[in-house]
Amino acid sequence: MRHLLLTIFIFFGMAVSAQNAAKLYEQGKALYDEKKYEAAVAKLKVAAEKGHKKAQYRLGYCFDKGKGVAEDDTKAFYWYSKAAEQDHAKAQYQLGRCYKKGEGTKVDLKKAVDLFQKAAKQGNADAMYALGKCYLKGQGVAADEKKAKSLLLKAIRDEEDGKDILKKIRKDAAEGDKDATKILSIIGK
Prior knowledge:
The protein is an all-alpha fold. 77% of the residues lie in helices and 0% in strands. Helix 2 (37-49) packs across helix 3, helix 8 (145-157) crosses helix 9 (162-174) and helix 9 (162-174) crosses helix 10 (178-187).
């Protein structure tokens, strides 16, 4: 009987903690959306420490971009890692970007590609684009223009983010970025 009560107590405690983390995340996200970054970080940090993957991702983003806190690549990497371990696609993409650029960690193109692949499989258009560029340039994988084209086209056709990705490619090409110019010629845009 005592064991049963202890089990029930632990389960109830975990459920309440998860509920509190979700509530804190929602409060933090609302503050973030209102551009009240410092107040948002306070809520997100508590939720992130309780294991809430969306809070972990957003807190990582705050450290990455210096929103409500000083920019800190090491802390951004830490929080992205926590969320990525829970299969959060945006965190996997951002963590892959950290590995590719050596932000908060040392450069590791194979880990970057692995993370981009995981996020792309979940439909993350930014990851598809990043992975396409890796295949195009042979970074962390063997160069494969056919795979690159397929991924780049999927990225720009994404309903949510595709237009923004294409707009960025066109802007970069107009500013003289040779990679962006090559991408436009490969995808026929």
